[in-house]
Write a structure and sequence with these properties.
There is one protein chain. With about 325 residues, the chain is of the alpha/beta class. It has one domain: Vaccinia Virus protein VP39 (Rossmann fold, 3-Layer(aba) Sandwich). About 40% of the residues lie in helices and about 20% in strands. The strands form 2 sheets. It has a 7-stranded mixed β-sheet, with helices on both faces. A 4-stranded antiparallel β-sheet has the order 1-2-3-9, with no helix packed on it. Helix 3 links the parallel strand 4 and strand 5. Helix 2 crosses helix 3 and helix 8 packs across helix 9. It is globular. The termini are far apart. The structure holds zinc ion (ZN). The site of zinc ion (ZN) has 9 residues, from loops. The site of zinc ion has 9 residues, from loops.
């Protein structure tokens, strides 16, 4: 671990501890983690910062939803219902949001950290020519075999990709995991054609949900897999330092934000990826509680969006 003095987003100075003694919600890391606040942009950054090896070791073997073992028919039914009622509508929302804000109706797209390609598949259906980039070989196999997507295994900074090639580079729930986000976004800049778009979905630390849950917020408890939680200002500066011009930002899907509310309130409701070993009945019970809490969180998610402090933000920036 390395003592961390600079903000990952704006390179400002890290000051007071914002979240203390944070425990990994999946229980992979057994350490207590601290986030400190940047004096300039207000973002939260892990201090000390784990080494790359420590970071990679903090991912459980089944991190993606569809990698979860589905040994019982009730699991398969639960997964089918959640996919149909939650994940697929959220993927469609992503495609429509990108098309509406960027004006792109198709083109070459690189989905960084796209995993098993569930979201990418919706972009492909909408007319994009998608390449999924991810360090997880097992997830990429699903992307190839199930969705026929083109894949590249590795990290963006090291990948052998043509320069000025893509029209769109997406980072869905990726930037907050990176140990050096500026390097990664600069690599995205290189592979984008002039006036190409970068789209990044991140959890926002200046949201009202953080004010309410503090250390109990599900995205804080993703430490150390979450290395930093930006503010809107932190994201703007990160994108500008990487060469981009921020054109717009919006809240992400309200059901996702309500889901974060639920996971913060009822941590055991987390998807079957959890390392928590629960019996089948207990797992279904807590998942059900999570569904109820999601509905309860919807008005709150709507309020924080209207108030301009949503718990997730999608940033749309362009290479000039
Ligand atoms: Zn900062």
């Amino acid at each position: 671990m390395v003592a961390n003095k600079r903000c990952l987003f704006c390179d400002g100075e890290l000051r007071e501890v914002l979240f203390e003694n944070v425990r990994d919600r999946l229980g992979v890391s057994d350490k207590a983690w601290n986030f400190r606040r940047c004096a300039d942009c207000g973002s939260a950054v892990l201090d000390p910062m784990p080494s790359l090896d420590e970071l990679l070791a903090a991912y459980p073997p089944t991190y993606h939803v569809d990698q979860a073992p589905q040994t019982h028919w009730l699991h398969r039914l639960q997964h089918a219902i959640e996919t149909r009622c939650f994940y697929h509508p959220v993927c469609r929302f992503s495609v429509q949001q990108v098309q509406r804000v960027t004006g792109l109706k198709g083109g070459r797209m690189l989905d960084v950290g796209g995993g098993s390609g569930h979201r990418s598949a919706f972009f492909q259906q909408a007319g994009f020519e998608v390449t999924v980039l991810d360090p997880d070989e097992r997830a990429l196999r699903v992307a190839q075999e199930q969705f026929g997507l083109r894949t590249v295994c590795g990290l963006l900074e090291e990948a052998d990709l043509p320069e000025e090639h893509f029209d769109l580079v997406t980072f869905y729930c990726v930037v907050e995991h990176l140990p050096e986000p500026q390097q990664t976004l600069t690599a995205a800049y290189r592979v984008l054609r002039p006036s190409g778009w970068v789209v990044a979905l991140v959890p926002l630390v200046d949201s009202w949900m953080v004010r309410m849950f503090k250390e109990r917020w599900a995205d804080v408890r993703e430490a150390p897999r979450h290395t930093g939680l930006p503010t809107v200002e932190g994201m703007r500066r990160l994108l500008e330092r990487s060469g981009f011009t921020l054109k717009a930002w919006e809240s992400y899907n309200l059901w996702v934000n309500a889901g974060l509310f639920a996971l913060s309130l009822v941590p055991l409701a987390t998807t079957p990826i959890a390392c928590v070993s629960l019996s089948l009945n207990a797992r279904l019970f807590w998942r059900g509680m999570g569904v109820l809490a999601t509905f309860a969180g919807l008005p709150f998610a709507w309020l924080e969006k209207i108030g301009g402090h949503p718990s997730t933000g999608v940033f749309f920036a362009q290479k000039q």
